[in-house]
Amino acid sequence: MQGEKMSAPETKGRVIHWARWYDLGSKLMSFGRDKAIRAKALELAAIQPGEKVLDVGCGTGTLAIAASEAAGAAGEVHGIDPSPEMIEVAEKKAASAHRDVRFQAGVIEALSYPDGEFDLVLSSLMLHHLPDDLKRKGFAEVLRVLKPGGRFLAVDFGSDTDSFLGHLLAVLGHGRGHGNAENLAAALRESGFEGVEAGSTGIHAMWFFKGKAREG
Question: What are the DSSP calls for the chain, one per residue?
Fold first, then answer.
């Protein structure tokens, strides 16, 4: 879609349009732990060569580009974000890195892919931008586009953080319990995911969430 004018899809989730400053903002908000968070996500995802991967809420594409390196030439990586500005930056970054990642404007609650398309769906620090009803719609869509036995891996705040200050406090280790982690894990199970796991990444308030689509 590079060079084309993109329109923003409709969503009730929070959309970030300041793509030009997003990477710097992420680094500041994570107190320089953005690379560690991304590395942990990739470790937990255990991407295999040849796998087909989707990054939902891909932002400026850094995680998707790294995922394409793990998937290799035989693999295929897609990234979606509701912000056209983010997609434009992501496409430029992928071109500079010489990575063939297929980015497009889109939302998790209405994925424009066929059933059973992906081996793995990733989400990094996006789910907390969605109201609860949208999370459940998004999880149902993720489950739909996963192959039998396909995997979902998300990294997000484990505590309830609804504001910029709340995010900062969570990163510093002052989050309000693990309410968000409990709610996300429960929502994944209720949406039909199997083998749901949730746990600390070891990076302050960042938790991981895993689930699988049913085999066969």
Answer: -TTSPP-PPP-SS-----GGGHHHHHHHHTTT-HHHHHHHHHHHHTPPTT-EEEEET-TTSHHHHHHHHHH-TT-EEEEEES-HHHHHHHHHHHHHTT--EEEEE--GGG--S-TT-EEEEEEES-GGGS-HHHHHHHHHHHHHHEEEEEEEEEEEESSB--SHHHHHHHHTT--BTTHHHHHHHHHHHHTT-EEEEEEEEEETTEEEEEEEPPP-
